[in-house]
Design a protein that fits this description.
It is a single chain. The longest helix is centred in the first third of the chain and has 23 residues, at 6-28. 57% of the residues lie in helices and 0% in strands. It has helices at 6-28, 38-52, 55-74. Keywords: DNA-binding. GO terms for molecular function: DNA binding.
Length: 101
């Protein structure tokens, strides 16, 4: 039976802090979470990351972001999590957001 040591928990926490500091904050910028919607989140966060990283890494970054948003909802900082059902595929990031008639 294996147990996670306190140093292992510390390493996991430091990795999450590193992702927030180096990946999420630079791309989200100073936008208020209350004004951020799904499309701007995809355009400003998901698609630039898909150009640099594998989809599995982007899903991990999204998971950490989603966890932080859920904590903000629990703390009543924002009213709800708008990013729960964000679907993204690696081939969607270069499609323009244009309505064709």
């Amino acid at each position: 039976m294996s147990q996670i040591s306190t140093s292992g928990k510390y390493q996991l926490k430091s990795k999450k802090i590193n992702v927030i500091q180096n990946k999420i904050k630079p791309l989200i910028g100073k936008k208020k979470l209350s004004t951020l919607d799904k499309e701007s989140y995809k355009r400003n966060f998901i698609w630039p990351l898909l150009k640099q990283y594998k989809p599995s890494s982007v899903r991990y970054y999204h998971l950490i972001f989603n966890t932080a948003i859920n904590a903000a909802v629990d703390s009543e900082i924002i009213s709800r999590n708008r990013f729960n059902k964000v679907n993204f595929h690696e081939d969607d990031y270069d499609k323009p957001n244009v309505l064709n008639i």
